[in-house]
């Protein structure tokens, strides 16, 4: 390729035309290559962010429906998290026997689902604590590596009085220390979303 560029330079000089020198051609090629590699990195980062935000919006829709139904109908509704291999699914259940939504009642089909299972794994985003993160959004040390922390049986329940099962759901974005935390307060069922950037938590929004 280099020999061809040199031959073209000599030919252009003989014909009295100005062309690119070898150095100019190599610099141009290097710039194009760098721009291409940079664009791949940017696209990958945007793709990871959009995938993780999609999971946040999926959880938002599920919690809004469960809380709204509970207050509107005067019956407890909850979101059950089910782990299968490296995937996590969420399903909304109704407390049909009025004793709370439990794993046992779900297995016995007493508490029945009112939604289809929704996958909480999209491309490079998954339910997991971001890599290297050792503290929760409140600054307390994390105890263990469980990304789903909602009472017993990994069930987030909303009551007609507006209360909820307190806990946190963690979402990992890509392979680094970025991600999200969705925290539910028990006393009023309010939800706060935190964004983790370079292992640091910042409040992102409230529902």
Query: Which structural class fits the helix and strand makeup?
Result: alpha+beta
CATH class: Alpha Beta
Report the end-to-end length measured between terminal Cα atoms: 60 Å
At the third CATH level, what is the topology name? minor pseudopilin epsh fold
Q: What can be said about the biggest beta sheet?
A: 6 strands, antiparallel
Mean pLDDT: 84
The CATH homologous superfamily name equals minor pseudopilin epsh domain
Number of helices: 3
Helix content: 25-40%
The portion of residues forming beta strands comes to 25-35%
Low-confidence stretches: 34-48
Order of helices and strands: HHEEHEEEEEEEE
- Going by CATH, the architecture would be 3-Layer(bab) Sandwich
Compute the CA-based radius of gyration: 26 Å
Number of strands: 10
The number of domains is 1
Describe the fold and architecture.
- By secondary structure, the chain is an alpha+beta fold.
- The protein has a single domain (2-206), classed as 3-Layer(bab) Sandwich (minor pseudopilin epsh fold), CATH 3.55.40.10.
- The protein has 3 helices and 10 strands; from the N terminus they run ααββαββββββββ.
- The protein has helices at residues 2-14, 22-73, 103-107; strands at 77-84, 87-94, 118-119, 125-127, 148-149, 155-158, 167-173, 178-184, 191-197, 200-206.
- Strands 4, 5, 7, 8, 9 and 10 form a 6-stranded antiparallel sheet that branches.
- The longest helix has 52 residues, at 22-73.
- Residues 34-48 have low confidence and may be disordered.
